[in-house]
Amino acid sequence: MGGVRVSPGPINIIVPTGSLGSGAVEEEVRLGVARGAHAIATDAGSTDSGAAYLALGMSKNNRGSVKRDLTILMRAGAEAGIPLIVGTSGQAGGDKNLDWTRDIVIEVARELGISPRIALLYSEQDKAILKAKNAAGKITPLAPLGALDDATIDACDHIVAAMGPEPYMAALRDGADIILGGRTTDTAVIASFALLHGAPEGAAWHAGKVSECGAQCAVYRNRGSGVLISISQDGFEVSPLSTDNRCDPDSVSAHMLYENSDPFRLVEPGGVLDVTDAVYTPVDDRTVKVTGSVWEPRPYTMKLEGAAGGRFQTLMLIGIQDPDVLCRIDEFHDSMLAGLYERARKSVGPEAGDFHISLRMYGWNAVSGDKPPAGTPAPREIGVLFVATADTQEAATQIAKACNAYFFHWPISMDKELPSYGFAFTPADVERGQVYEFKLNHVVHVDDPMELVRTVWIDLRAAEAA
């Protein structure tokens, strides 16, 4: 298994789902194997859900769903004798996230009665090494951040560097049956097997990008979960694994827009994928062939992601249908916010510390924060979320308690009877806990794609023999 060369012809890779734990379909995986798959590759994480998962070393997906998907994929890989490749393990790809996934894999292996050789690719970074790199001018910022300083590095709870395909290629070459990677670009995880076996770089990288979210590149995104990519010397083909779905040129080409500001160029470790001249041609009613993708080599960089816990928050939530308020929402917001600050300062005093209060008007402008244009019709109702942020949880909660009466009864017109708004919970204040944030938006320049990666092997066959 592992790094064994496939037979001549297209290199076929099953991408069973957009993210491990989101619902691989066993029938689809079996169909992919029957169609001659040489590997199974899937991403398992993202920064989409925020910094907490890296800072805490935890997964957003529940353990049961990840174990379910791994059971399907590990069984299929073992039966077919093909490798399983997983990137950004445990949501954020930190060491704790990877170890969490490792434990599930070992548990599933024992339940299935299989003994894979497992490669663990760790990409969490030592702060001393990063400080030395920074001092040598090897770390540069991405917009909108500026130059990195040692204090910011020290402030991070965990820092990862996003790997390219090379660590996966090395593990496959050394005979890995299962690879669990730390933080990795989604595209590199999928492209690695094809690149190892001589596929053109442009086609391999573009196929990885198109298929990174599984069936999201198909016409019907809610039909099925996975896709099969077939990479050859003149391009690649992609088709959904669900027989009730299809790809077309629009659905395939559109995926270059996903999480990418430029629909024609995608920056990856060691180069840029350029699809400016790519051609998308239907092969049949379910399959699209892509040609003309180009890979432009560049000096090797790895994106750094660092996360840390910050201050603490307490929340309250109300719903308002008062027509007077709904006709004057911006005025109401400003008046209430000023009143809440005054109440907190008078009631809590210096113990509140350097605190912050925000009001988020859901149904009006909570997402953007922008004031709607004049003349925007009044909504039927709004939800108002109160957020108190302070240095400690106790301080945030005391601020919320002090503001309780004002929050639920603040009038738009002082000469009218005090209103009572609809509160969502009792007790009204909900302790949210610590706030987590990303501290880094930088890249580190490396001479060797492997230099910031640690590879650890677990050989269950050898362990059983011993």
Automatic annotation (TrEMBL):
<protein>
    <submittedName>
        <fullName>3-methylaspartate ammonia-lyase</fullName>
    </submittedName>
</protein>
<feature type="domain" description="Acyclic terpene utilisation N-terminal">
    <location>
        <begin position="94"/>
        <end position="412"/>
    </location>
</feature>
<dbReference type="Pfam" id="PF07287">
    <property type="entry name" value="AtuA"/>
</dbReference>
<dbReference type="InterPro" id="IPR010839">
    <property type="entry name" value="AtuA_N"/>
</dbReference>
